[in-house]
Design a protein that fits this description.
single chain; alpha/beta; binds erythose-4-phosphate; 11 helices; eight-stranded parallel barrel
Length: 215
């Protein structure tokens, strides 16, 4: 049951990584753009922080160029590198080759069980079903996680299900309940995982009572 942060905001990542509860980070071109930094600078800072697993997306247009970029990233950042490729014919060819070289690949933009099956066949370490974006299009994102996890379990597939594009805390629990191995989320969702109104109320009451008994 691993928790990844889905952001390229290094300050936020550092804050939450220090809790000891974070296992990795996923980035994508939009998140890197939002950080106003160069991708390599973000990855270098995350590596220096000690993040053990960082998904770095390659967006080149040919298999050769994607492979070249993947190898460059692995060369630069080493063991913490997970190469993220889209679930396209080219992306899966790249995945297949990198898997043979024992390089971790996260196949992203997964919207169907069929895509997840192909990614697993291509040797992906992770498949990333986009729960929130499926929901945005009026079909069940969490059901997709469940369907993929079920078929992987039944066929003893080693590829892990990384539930992505999560919009809220409830999705996190459900994704794990439905068989996700890893859940990636924005820092705002991670922060909300701690929160419960009854915890706040209970704490307030205990603190008040403690004031009267502590001396
Ligand atoms: C996954 O790795 C993606 O970075 C991410 O979860 C996409 O989420 P979004 O749909 O909120 O952009």
């Amino acid at each position: 049951m691993q928790i990844f942060l889905d952001t390229a905001d290094c300050q936020e990542i550092q804050k939450h990584y220090s809790t000891g509860l974070i296992d990795g980070v996923t980035t994508n071109p939009s998140l890197i753009l939002k950080s106003h930094r160069k991708p390599d600078d973000v990855y270098a800072e995350l590596k220096a922080m000690g993040i053990p697993d960082i998904s770095m997306e390659v967006v080149e247009h040919t298999v050769i160029d994607m492979l070249r970029e993947a190898h460059r990233l692995v060369e630069l950042f080493g063991e913490c590198t997970t190469i993220k490729v889209p679930c396209t014919p080219d992306g899966l060819m790249v995945c297949n080759q990198l898997a043979k070289e024992n390089i971790r690949v996260n196949v992203t933009l997964i919207f169907s069980q069929a895509q997840a099956i192909l990614a697993a066949k291509a040797g992906a370490a992770y498949v990333s079903p986009f729960v929130g974006r499926v929901d945005d299009n009026s079909f069940g994102g969490l059901c997709l996680v469940k369907d993929i996890a079920k078929v992987f379990r039944e066929h003893m597939v080693r590829t892990q299900v990384l539930a992505a594009s999560l919009r809220g805390v409830r999705d996190v629990g459900r994704a794990f309940e439905y068989g996700a191995d890893i859940v990636t989320m924005p820092t705002g969702v991670f922060e909300k995982m701690y929160k419960h109104i009854l915890t706040d109320k209970g704490l307030e009451l205990f603190s008040r009572d403690w004031e009267q008994v502590k001396h």
